[in-house]
Amino acid sequence: MVKFGVLVLLSAIAIGQGETTIESQCQVCQEENNVYCESESTFLRMRGAMKLGPLSCEADEVCSNSGNLCKKKTEITNEVLNVCGANCQSCSADRKYTCVSRNQAALCLNGQASSTIIIDCGEDEVCVDDDDGKAFLCVPSCVADYQKLSVPCSSAAFTTPTPAPPTTPSGDNQKSICQAAAVNKKTLYFFTYADSSCRTYVYCERSSSTSTDFTTTLSGSCSSPNPYFNTVSGKCQASVPDNCESEAPST
């Protein structure tokens, strides 16, 4: 990881003090919907101490703080947030830098936050992203608090986001997969395999344990070094799970 000295640009701060905004909670479990947004389009569902996922929004949707967590970008407002894409880890347009954690910034390369060119802020400093991303600001936390500056990232350290899978079952296909897998299942929610590879999976949720109408269906996939999904543990793993052959669809 390449690290640069921190450039503190206190004189460049020109953000008003009278206005506050809702702080994004990228890579933090949100109390509003018990979801951990891992990247702009991938997330984990929190069930107590258990993390279910990673799961993926549809191609044109982002992980939000809403109860209906996957939202189209046109539905994003000042209250319904694009949690990991508003300013935290955002390299949209012609941005050069973005904050990637509470006290780190990264260089934007080809529209993505670099996972190797990371700028560490100093001790007791926080990263404040400017509006156009032409520069980053590392300022003392007391200055950020006093001037009510928006700190876009809440996570303590940068974790390279897991990219969304290149292809996922459509919404209708996800429901069909859930309905087929629901035979002999009596739980409100469960994971099932989307295909015979046991790498792509679907999360299925319904309003009652006997309903065949699945109100929430989400898909995801695993990649190296843990390319296989275990529907029992709800986690990716290195080896083929024991139930892969018996539970995965034949096609």
From the structure above, extract its key features.
single chain; 251 residues; mainly beta; 2 domains; 4-stranded antiparallel beta sheet; disordered N terminus
Task: Describe the structure in brief.
This protein is 8% helix and 33% strand.
Present the secondary structure layout:
Layout: E1 2-4, E2 29-30, E3 35-37, E4 42-47, E5 50-56, E6 61-63, E7 70-72, E8 97-101, E9 104-109, E10 112-120, E11 125-129, E12 136-140, H1 141-146, H2 171-181, E13 189-193, E14 200-206, E15 214-221, E16 228-230, E17 235-237, H3 244-247
Parallel strand pairs: 1-10
Antiparallel strand pairs: 2-3, 3-4, 4-5, 6-7, 8-9, 9-10, 11-12, 13-14, 14-15, 16-17
